[in-house]
Amino acid sequence: xxxxxxxxxxxxxxxxxxxELFNPIEAGKVGMYTCGPTIYDYAHIGNFRAxxxxxxxxxxxxxxxxxxxxxxxxxxxxxxxxxxxQKQAKPLREYTDFxxxxxxxxxxxxxxxxxxxxxxxxxxxxxMVKLIKTLLAKGVAYRGEDGSIYFAISKFPEYGKLSHxxxxxLKAGAxxxxxxxxxxxxxxxxxxxxxxxxxxxxxxxxxxxxxxxGWHIECSAMSMRYLGETFDIHCGxxxxxxxxxxxxxxxxxxATGKPFVHYWMHNEHLLVEGKKMAKRSGNFYTLRDLxxxxxxxxxxxxxxLSTHYRQQFNFTFEGLDAAKGAIERLAxxxxxxxxxxxxxxxxxxxxxxxxAQTCFREAMDDDLNVSVALAALFDFVRExxxxxxxxxxxxxxxxxxxxxxxxxxxxLGVVPQSKEETLPAEAEELIQKRxxxxxxxxxxxxxxxxQQLKTMGITVxxxxxxxxxxxxxx
RNA sequence: GCUGGGGUGGCCGAAUGGUUCAGGCGACAGCCUGCAGAGCUGUUAUAUAUGGGUUCAAUUCCCAUCCCCAGCUCCA
Length: 474
Fold this sequence. Notes:
Low-confidence stretches: 1-7, 171-180
Number of strands: 16
Mean pLDDT: 88
CATH superfamily of the largest domain: HUPs
Largest sheet: 5 strands, antiparallel
CATH topology of the largest domain: Rossmann fold
Number of helices: 14
């Protein structure tokens, strides 16, 4: 294992509210847990902002040589999944499988690299039961009057440390009241929910009784199972900070007596056309909604990526257009580089490449400052285009420049890949015919053929190196 | 109510106590091209919510005001 060049990676740790130098527990390796989707519906673009941010983080770590063990849970049992499955009269598993599959299709479209493992809550009931038993044995959990098991936050003095909320100052919410009678303290949260008729056939017979796990316990149980009792990074949306992550810390540390997570990272929400995005308020878009509008998934990725993750940002269709233009600029450069065959300027190329790489790395090392990293990339693009205009890149150098762009894109994942696709024979023929017409300076015929190709979804461009074509997205 | 984030050019979005405040998108013009496309150059751009204060110097620090957004029990 080569020494990761991560000596400078600093990330903002919610726990300390400061940028800190990242130091892994084990050299060269990172254990990372990210709160995944609740698979009761299609995920929306707000969900994907979190997943794209986490993907960027992981790619950056990997780019520095780390081997990343990435765990993303799938929540497949809670009130909403139970209700949803009952509504469709399907077994819980069949119901959640459907949305799990959709989720995997979505992240693939967004060029999100798969996690190492996607544990599902319902596959880890024994781990949760074991953890709850430990908490009961330690006296930090208790059985309420309704038979459910609760965590006693009064037994965990550090409660509130992550979110900086003081328990006594929480807003008196109406939602607390309904099962308040069963708990000793209003803020105690359920570890194990005893079965009620509304749960139908969703229950597990365990040593804790007939019931199902609470939401928070799954993340503690599964992260410990796959990453150990203490691991490096835990990510999630800001909304999860309290109470979910706070509860995870309480459960985990109360059980093990060890620190749970070294670095907590939270991404801000996005707004859609200036308004908060939420599943219930109906102003949300799933990825599928956007793809149905023929929008480019990589442009969506670019847009979600291009604003710093701790910054709230406004998702607009105008922004999507801009993103589309930006990634096309990158793709165009890559296509141009393929045809280059100029005189060569090795020193110049080495200089601008090194500068771009340094700027890019320093920006990303600074808590993933992707805006500055992108600026470095686009400066590079302009300089390479300048060299191409001067016909000053040899074939080899063009390949090097192209490899440099590809290397940046290993982190960003936004450059459309020019597929080595072939044209139908019919189109090849037309292009040939047009070339003949152009040679004969028969512009009328040439333009007519170009128009004809366009209706076939093929755009031709005449360059100094000959004719070039690209497929337009239908 | 309590806590926190933010208001930068037509739009999106960086950065900074001090040479002209990144980058992308858009629009317009020029170059190139048979035309177009791509690309380059220039313009739009003497843009930092408002009013005070500190300072030799503030967009950056402080105070006040206005506006936007979020969290406060299961929503990324």
